[in-house]
Design brief:
Layout: H1 12-18, H2 47-60, H3 65-70, H4 74-89, H5 96-110, H6 113-127, H7 130-139, H8 147-161, H9 168-176, H10 181-203
Helix pairs in contact: 4-10, 5-6, 5-7, 5-8, 5-10, 6-7, 8-9, 8-10
C-alpha cells in the first residue's frame, strides 16, 4: 500500500484530499488518499505559497493535489507553480482552452492518470462541451477540431512520441495554420512541461482530487 505524502495530522496534503469543492459530493472512499506513493513530510511553506494555497482553497474549494504533492520542498513548489501559471494562465496567442487541450493530448499519449483527470475536467469547463473533453482524453483525432487545433495537437503529439522526427516542415504546418513564432514556442513549452509533469506524476503514483471526476459533466 502506498504511503501518505505526509503523516502529520492536519497537513496540507491531508486537507487537500479530504475537503471536496463546494457543490460536489464527496465520495465515501476517495481515490486521492494518499496523494502520492512516497513518504515525503511536508516542508515549511513560504508566506507566498501559504497565501497561494489559501487562494486555491477559497477559489476552487480545494487545493489541487499536485500542489500538495510538491509541498515537501517549497523551492520546488514555487518553481512548479510559477512555470505552470506562466504557461497556462499568462497572456498568450493560445487560448486557455487550447493550452488545456495540449495538456490532455500529451497526457493521453503518456497515459497519465493525474493529468488526464485534472486537465480533462479543465477542457470540459473551458469548452462547455463534455464530449470534447472525453474525446481528447481517449483520442484527439476523433474530435471534430478546426484545422488550427488539429495542427496544434498533431505537433504536440509528435513532439511527445517522436521528438527526434520534428523538423521545419512541422513548424511550417503550424505557421500555415495561423500560429505565430511565439505561439509555436508556447506549444512546444507546454508540451515539454506536461511530458515532465506526466512522468513525475506517474513515477510517484500521484492521485488527482476526486472532485475533478464530476466537474463539468
Amino acid at each position: 500500500m502506498a504511503k501518505a505524502a505526509n503523516k502529520k495530522s492536519g497537513s496540507v496534503a491531508t486537507k487537500a484530499a479530504a475537503k471536496p469543492a463546494k457543490g460536489n459530493v464527496a465520495t465515501p472512499a476517495p481515490d486521492d488518499v494518499p496523494i502520492i506513493a512516497l513518504d515525503l513530510p511536508q516542508g515549511e511553506l513560504s508566506p507566498a505559497m501559504s497565501a497561494y494555497f489559501q487562494k486555491c482553497q477559497d477559489k476552487l474549494g480545494f487545493i489541487p493535489n499536485v500542489l500538495a504533492a510538491y509541498a515537501f520542498d517549497n523551492a520546488k513548489l514555487e518553481a512548479f507553480a510559477a512555470m505552470y501559471n506562466d504557461l497556462m494562465l499568462a497572456p498568450s496567442g493560445l487560448s486557455k482552452l487550447e493550452r488545456e487541450m495540449i495538456a490532455v493530448a500529451v497526457s493521453s499519449q503518456n497515459r497519465c492518470y493525474y493529468c488526464l483527470t485534472a486537465h480533462g475536467a479543465a477542457v470540459r469547463q473551458y469548452s462547455g462541451n463534455p464530449l470534447l473533453g472525453e474525446q481528447i482524453v481517449m483520442n484527439y483525432r476523433a474530435a471534430r477540431l478546426d484545422p488550427r487545433q488539429r495542427a496544434m495537437l498533431d505537433f504536440a503529439v509528435k513532439l511527445t512520441v517522436t521528438p527526434a522526427e520534428v523538423e521545419d516542415a512541422d513548424r511550417e504546418t503550424l505557421r500555415k495554420a495561423g500560429f505565430s513564432e511565439r505561439d509555436i514556442w508556447d506549444i512546444a513549452a507546454i508540451t515539454g512541461f506536461f511530458n515532465m509533469s506526466n512522468r513525475v506524476a506517474t513515477a510517484t503514483d500521484m492521485r488527482p482530487n476526486t472532485v475533478y471526476h464530476g466537474q463539468a459533466r
